[in-house]
Specification:
Length: 263
């Protein structure tokens, strides 16, 4: 199992190096090779996750290592889906490194398989934590799109304008997707908390920062739907919002221990 995880990291790292090299020197062959290596990494990553789940006899989402592993896999999955459906090859240069960084963070966490804590033995387990994986992955990819938008906006031309519109709309769709699943996270967490701790809301640090994240993206959607903001301003908004997502994911557990510290 550990070998599969190490191979996954090596393959993701190779894909990122090839992607950056191909982009810098405009070598199409390297970019194609990078994508093939990334797909191989994704397949090994999936195999590792399945093997860990079978070994643990549960969904592998119960601690920080397993959540980070699933988070990275979610980013990779969404990148693959977006590239296939929208032919958005340009997203790889920002999204591939993000998947690698999250998986590297996972590698720094304890990898031992442990039994579920009593509070986690619930039908809400997969719904709550699985929704968080999809939500965070969508927000991180939206930030990656925003970063790419900011860099491309410095250029002029009809082709760039068309791509910028595509990026702007894609980031909006990713945020809407992530916002939906973050809402599921909060609602399912509230129901689960009432069953486990007899309270829908306890102002636990993880709950508070999940709510802060929800508000940040609610403001983004409000501005977009009202037509008040678009383009570079919203792209910067998404870039700045990513650290909040990452703090909710990892920083809270490290700096603000609470009821969710085991996760």
């Amino acid at each position: 199992m550990r070998t599969l995880f190490i191979v996954t990291i090596i393959l993701y790292a190779a894909a990122v190096i090839l992607q950056f090299t191909g982009t810098a020197f405009k070598k199409e062959r390297l970019l194609k090779l990078s994508w093939l290596v990334f797909l191989a990494a994704f397949a090994v990553h999936l195999l590792f996750t399945i093997v860990r789940g079978v070994a643990a006899k549960r969904i592998p989402l119960s601690n920080q290592f397993e959540f980070a592993n699933a988070f990275a896999w979610g980013v990779a999955l969404m990148l693959i889906v977006i590239r296939r459906r929208l032919k958005a090859d340009w997203l790889s240069v920002a999204a591939m490194p993000m998947a690698l960084l999250i998986l590297t963070y996972a590698a720094l966490q304890p990898m031992e398989i442990r039994d579920l804590m009593p509070a986690l033995r619930s039908a809400w387990f997969g719904i709550h934590i699985g929704s968080a994986v999809l939500s965070y992955a969508a927000f991180v990819l939206a930030g990656s799109v925003g970063l790419r938008y900011v860099l491309l906006a410095r250029r002029n031309g009809a082709e760039e304008e068309s791509r910028l519109r595509q990026m702007d709309y894609l980031s909006y769709r990713l945020v809407a997707f992530g916002f939906l699943f973050l809402t599921v996270v909060i609602l399912s967490g509230a129901i689960w908390a009432e069953q486990a701790w007899s309270a829908f809301w306890t102002w636990d640090p993880k709950e508070v920062w999940a709510l802060i994240t929800w508000i940040i993206y609610a403001v983004y959607l409000h501005l977009r739907l009202r037509g008040k903001r678009r383009g570079a301003a919203m792209a910067w908004y998404l870039v700045v919002a990513v650290p909040v997502v990452l703090f909710t994911f990892a920083g809270v557990n490290t700096l603000l221990p609470g009821l969710h510290s085991y996760g």
